């Protein structure tokens, strides 16, 4: 395998993505670019020096021209959320950073797949699609992949079943208007709602859907309040997305992309289950949702469109 991945931003998230990609051996070359060159150099050197115990991955820092021939570019440059700050508060700052990076990186790597991680991820993904001159099927955000992982982990924890037996997705904005379409959620093929009733075994704990959704929405904020950033779960989420891009076998992932009429929604980036593989997005799935779930998705789209109106791209 010969895959080159460039990461823009050597902060907590960018460097953890580089480390997760290295541990998973998803790339043969990883380039780290940051406006603070010394930071990129230090992170790359630190990760590279562990590679004799991992495998032949060449991790180094670089400038934009070093991104030439990248298969994937991961975008993590931006200011992180401060404790108590919402993702949308830092929108204009991160839009401005994105604006300055887009021409430089797209000139160097016009044929790459672009993975947007920086927040607000749905807005920055929209900005990329609208302004980068790269086909929309090659640009996507990590979206609600992490929220979906949190959802599966929470259900698995509650019912003490393996996470891989929990199926379901978080839809919408990666943020406050995200929601779980419970009509699609199941454990070992049994709808989550019927799971407890169908279970012949030790008594199961009570379970409240609102608590689960609250837990998903608040997790990022709780972690930031405790340790000032989130990096590990988003690092491995991003590496998993990059891994899916290595294969011709397509995956279903809740990544953020430009909707084109699904559920009557257009001209906004948000997450619904999306088919993705080596050439980027192949298609999106319009899963059968209940009327109120469709309403929630449209509400999420409206929240994002409100922000889009207020931002200067
Ligand atoms: N070009 C390149 N790198 C830049 C630029 C730029 N124009 N502006 C800022 N950076 C770099 C910073 O120098 C810093 O190293 O981006 C990095 C951001 O790192 P952190 O401040 O540690 O932020 P981090 O926690 O990594 O979060 C980055 O990812 O998950 C999201 O919400 C998070 O939007 C945030 C992003």
UniProtKB/TrEMBL annotation:
Entry GO CC: cytoplasm
Limits of the Lactate/malate dehydrogenase N-terminal domain: 4-141
Gene Ontology BP, a term: lactate metabolic process
Binding site for NAD(+): 9-14, 34, 39, 64, 78-79, 94, 100, 117-119, 142
GO molecular function: L-lactate dehydrogenase (NAD+) activity
Activity control mechanisms: Allosterically activated by fructose 1,6-bisphosphate (FBP).
Coarse class of the protein's main subcellular location: cytoplasm
Database matches in InterPro entries: L-lactate/malate_DH, L-lactate_DH, Lactate/malate_DH_C, Lactate/malate_DH_N, Lactate_DH/Glyco_Ohase_4_C, NAD(P)-bd_dom_sf
Catalytic residue list: 174 (proton acceptor)
Keywords, comma-separated and alphabetical: Allosteric enzyme, Cytoplasm, NAD, Oxidoreductase
Top EC class for this record: oxidoreductase
A Pfam family hit: Ldh_1_N
Binding site residues for beta-D-fructose 1,6-bisphosphate: 152, 167
Keyword NAD: yes
Domain Lactate/malate dehydrogenase C-terminal, first and last residues per copy: 144-311
EC number: 1.1.1.27
Compartments, record wording: Cytoplasm
Pathway entry: Fermentation; pyruvate fermentation to lactate; (S)-lactate from pyruvate: step 1/1
Catalytic activity from the UniProt record: (S)-lactate + NAD(+) = pyruvate + NADH + H(+)
Annotated substrate binding sites: 81, 87, 119-122, 147-150, 230
Assembly behavior: Homotetramer.
Similarity-based family: Belongs to the LDH/MDH superfamily. LDH family.
Task of the protein: Catalyzes the conversion of lactate to pyruvate.
Stated name of the protein: L-lactate dehydrogenase
Taxon lineage: Bacteria, Pseudomonadati, Spirochaetota, Spirochaetia, Spirochaetales
Gene: ldh
């Amino acid at each position: 395998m010969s895959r080159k991945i460039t990461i823009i931003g050597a902060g907590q998230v960018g460097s953890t993505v580089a480390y997760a990609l290295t541990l998973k051996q998803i790339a043969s070359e990883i380039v780290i670019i940051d406006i603070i060159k010394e930071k990129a150099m230090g992170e790359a050197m630190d990760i590279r020096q562990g590679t004799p115990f991992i495998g032949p991955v060449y991790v180094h820092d670089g400038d934009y021209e070093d991104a030439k021939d990248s298969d994937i570019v991961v975008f993590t440059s931006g200011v992180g959320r401060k404790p108590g700050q919402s993702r949308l508060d830092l929108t204009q700052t991160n839009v401005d950073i994105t604006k300055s990076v887009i021409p430089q990186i797209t000139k160097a790597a016009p044929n790459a797949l672009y993975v947007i991680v920086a927040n607000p991820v749905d807005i920055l993904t929209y900005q990329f699609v609208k302004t980068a001159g790269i086909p929309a099927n090659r640009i996507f955000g990590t979206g609600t992949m992490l929220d979906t992982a949190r959802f599966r982990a929470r259900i698995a924890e509650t019912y003490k079943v393996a996470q891989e037996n929990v199926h379901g997705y978080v839809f919408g904005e990666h943020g406050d208007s995200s929601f779980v379409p419970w009509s699609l959620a199941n454990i070992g093929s049994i709808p989550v709602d019927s799971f407890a009733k169908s279970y012949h075994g030790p008594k199961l704990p009570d379970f409240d859907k609102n608590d689960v959704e609250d837990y998903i929405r608040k997790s990022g904020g709780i972690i930031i309040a405790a340790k000032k950033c989130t990096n590990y779960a988003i690092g491995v989420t991003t590496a998993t997305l990059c891994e899916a891009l290595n294969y011709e076998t397509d995956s279903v992932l809740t990544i953020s992309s430009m909707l084109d009429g699904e559920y009557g929604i257009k001209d906004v980036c948000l997450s619904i289950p999306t088919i993705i593989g080596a050439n980027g997005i192949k298609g999106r799935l319009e899963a059968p949702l209940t009327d109120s779930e469709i309403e929630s998705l449209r509400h999420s789209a409206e929240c994002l469109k409100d922000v889009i109106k207020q931002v200067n791209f």
